[in-house]
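I am hoping you can look over what I have pasted underneath with an eye to the fold:
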Amino acid sequence: MEFPVILVVGLTAVVGLTLGLLGGGGSILMVPLLAYVAGLPPKEAIAVSLVVVGATSLVGAFAHARRGNVRWRTGLLFGAAGMGGAFLGGLAGGHVPGTVLMVAFALMMVATAAAMLRGRGSPAGGGERRGEPPLWRILADGLAVGAVTGLVGAGGGFLVVPALALLGGLPMPVAVGTSLLVIAMKSFAGLTGYLASVSPDWALVAAVTAAAVAGSLVGTRLASRVPEAALRRGFGVFVLVMGVLVLAMELPAPFGAVLAATAAAVAALGAVCRLLGEYCPLAPLRAGA
């Protein structure tokens, strides 16, 4: 086995770990990993990502279910709607230029990182809301998130978890577990669309999937032991850096360099402001946000 493949397999285990811990984020790292480290074309990287994330999420969902953290009815309804959107997104993605897909994926990475760094609110009282959300709302949200999944190869965990927590009023551990069921359903539907125009390397698929599943099982065990807020903030910074790097590599020369420099300046300003705390000039803006 060549060194790049060994490196990809090892890093894929880390991707699985994030899925088990956070209920999402796997494809946010998987697509750039396959495209830039394994050297796969963008469309093939997205198709392989859908296989890996789908299989890993399914295993993780059953692991969470054993702890009572999967709401099957809500997940199946949301996932069924998402599968339709993912299939259509996968069909469309097969006919979109690779550069456009990677730029769209990078923009999703930046948006995801921003949502992660801001954090998510919990339902009032941290408990479970009573009543069921309207069926049309579940189907509409599932369809929209599914279309994103199929188009850019992202399982949408960081879209699904907030939707489940806010729509269904699920506690965070249950939202994370249920999201893995939804991600698995949507990923396999998106893959079906991509297989109409892409032929993945199935040997590579098997190797990285096995590594991701192993990482996911470890992540599931650690989910109740690692402080979620600190982990999510650190992971959010990493995803933001990755998104900016992908944009810098895919955009034309002047724009990529300017974007990277601007992002670095904003990151440095944020770090300095964090060190200054209440003395930061931007503190009033943050408080009023």
